[in-house]
Amino acid sequence: MLIKLVLGGCAINVVSAYALHVGLADEVKREFWDALDGVIVGLPLTEKVIIGGDFNGHIGDSAEGFEDVHGGFGFGSRNPAGVSLLEFARASDMLVANSCFPKRDDHLATFVSGVGTTQIDYLLMRRCDRVLCKDVKVIPSENITTQHKLLVMDVMIRWVKHRRATGGNTQIRWRRLSGEKISELIKRVQEKGAWESAGEATDMWAQTANCIREAAREVLGMSSGSRSRHQGDWWWSDSVRSKVEAKKVAYLLLKRKC
What we know:
Number of domains: 2
Distance between the termini: 58 Å
Order of helices and strands: EEHEHEEEEEEHHH
Oligomer: single chain
Shape: elongated
CATH superfamily of the largest domain: Endonuclease/exonuclease/phosphatase
CATH class of the largest domain: Alpha Beta
Number of helices: 5
Structural class: alpha+beta
CATH architecture of the largest domain: 4-Layer Sandwich
Strand order of the largest sheet: 1-2-3-7-4
Number of strands: 9
């Protein structure tokens, strides 16, 4: 089973696996690893991958021979199924995360039964993402089943905040067109002779429009191009504020009467 999560702009693929190794033929075991490898190979290298599962194998407390994928903090003795897990991790450029932190035995053992205590549940992640893993341990007081213990991994994902672009195109400040600015703009357009053009209609329109824009830039000015968080603040004035407050008071009085 695979679940894809997106956290802070980071895609994380969580894969759940279960290896039925006990008493099965080698061919069946190879089919399991080939199937799991097919899942991992199909995931983009830009995305995070976490594999969690019961692999029915013991990687042991020593990293000998697998120092690149075994952190050196395991439990018990290694067996053939554990070797298969370590070989898969190496082939997939992953590591066994719950072998990377020194813990007490009860925080390493994932399976407790009347026969004994072992470590068969593991969490794997890509080696390049090792820095994201802050801790992995067993919670002895929490049981997933009557025998399996809860295995928890702490992963820190940096939240990527995408800033909005602050730059923009400069524009004529048309909202300043009021009062004396209106007559000043008309005068400036007349001085530029915008209405004295002749020729084709499209040419006359283009020349007139350019004259109006040029005059408006001189009279009204241009915006800086930066985007303000509150682009509508220009209309908020003492007069508007007083009317809004009066509306609130009137609404409260009406509500009391009802």
